[in-house]
Amino acid sequence: MPLIVKDHTWTQNQNTVYISVPLKGVKPASVHVICTDEYLKVSFPPFLFEVFLFGSINEERSEARIGNGVAVFTLQKRRDESWEQLFTNIDKDKQKQIREQAVLKVQQKEAEKSKAKAARIQQEKKYALETMMKLENKERDRIQKMKDEECARATAELDFWRETQRKTAEEKENQQKTRGTGPQDNQPVNQKTVTLMRNTGDTTSGQRSRKQTAKDLPAPRSAGCIQISFTPRVFPTALRESRVPEEEEWLKKQAEARRAVDTDLAELDDLREDERNPDWLKEKGDKLFMSGNYQAAVNAYNLAIKLNRKIPALFSNRAACHLKLRNLHKAIEDSSQALELLKPAVAANASARLKAHVRRGTAFCELELYVEGLQDYQAALEIDPHNAALRADSDKICEIIQGTT
């Protein structure tokens, strides 16, 4: 049986009720609160505080502050009035019904939050995919433009050469016409004489030379067929837009296959036994980053991730290196992976989540995706609302977005 807390205090005015509940030395993380329009429950085992409110409150506008050994609730009344007491006297059946409705309402809210979170993650992935597609199309157009320019240049050079050849031939023909017709009139006679002499005197020798030439020629090559075999893909390629889940599953399998191939790399064999430690490799990567050797830091983090893929700091720090090296898409991917490993969001990992959001937001802004970058900066501000530098950067991004719309 839980221990009922009775040493609570409460005050009120015309539109607000203040309730203070001592936590009996329990940590704030162990406190669970359920609040509806007519019911408030504070559970921190083995203690329990439960109240069926005298009047109705506005749950959306009410708030709770838990810390320093006390939970303080500020409840906004729906009507401006003074309550005669905090509790209302109702029978057990009515109390049971109110409890069940409160639990059901809390479950529905949690389900809605989970659904909204999943939709936001899917939207972020879609943004990243669209960004990659835009960059690929831009690069493809650039290459095609280079090909077209090179083809046009080659065609112009060929036309110029043909025109030069034509002018040269015309000049030679004009020179021959200006020389006169005297010697040319006798040329056909001389040609006929030479032809007759060749036909009458060298008939036999010509036939012999043709036969000898025919014997020296090699036989024609025989026809053949070259067999070509292509290496089949391990996984089928899915469509980009209409079947996004299949594509993500395929990419995941490809990554797993690559990791399976890379497990026996010579890089790990070259390390000493004490160096095959992700924490040691992380410290080495941090020192290399501080010294400005970003590519070497990336290599150290890569080896650490191959040994242990469950450390969020490895992905977050590698994202920082990629930002320095201008590998912006890799920075977005590593920051997203770090945020996935930092779930659930608790106070202990707030600093790490803030860094990952800022790094991913910076990468988005460098790619001129300011809306996505603003989302990450706003998420960082929710973690640290009093950070003046973050707020200033967020305001600058807002100004850029408003200037481009």
TrEMBL record:
InterPro entries: CS_dom, CS_DYX1C1, Dynein_assembly_factor_4, TPR_rpt. Residues 92-149 form a coiled coil. The keyword Magnesium does not apply. Its main location: other. Keywords: Cell projection, Coiled coil, Cytoplasm, Neurogenesis, Nucleus, Repeat, TPR repeat. GO terms for molecular function: nuclear estrogen receptor binding. Residues 177-207 have a biased composition (Polar residues). GO terms for cellular component: dynein axonemal particle; extracellular region; neuron projection; nucleus. Residues 162-221 are annotated as: Disordered. It comes from the Eukaryota. Residues 3-87 form the CS domain. TPR repeats lie at residues 354-387. GO terms for biological process: determination of left/right symmetry; epithelial cilium movement involved in extracellular fluid movement; heart development; inner dynein arm assembly; nervous system development; outer dynein arm assembly. Residues 162-176 have a biased composition (Basic and acidic residues). It is found in: Cell projection, Neuron projection; Dynein axonemal particle; Nucleus. The keyword Secreted does not apply. This is Dynein axonemal assembly factor 4. The lineage of its organism: Eukaryota, Metazoa, Chordata, Craniata, Vertebrata.
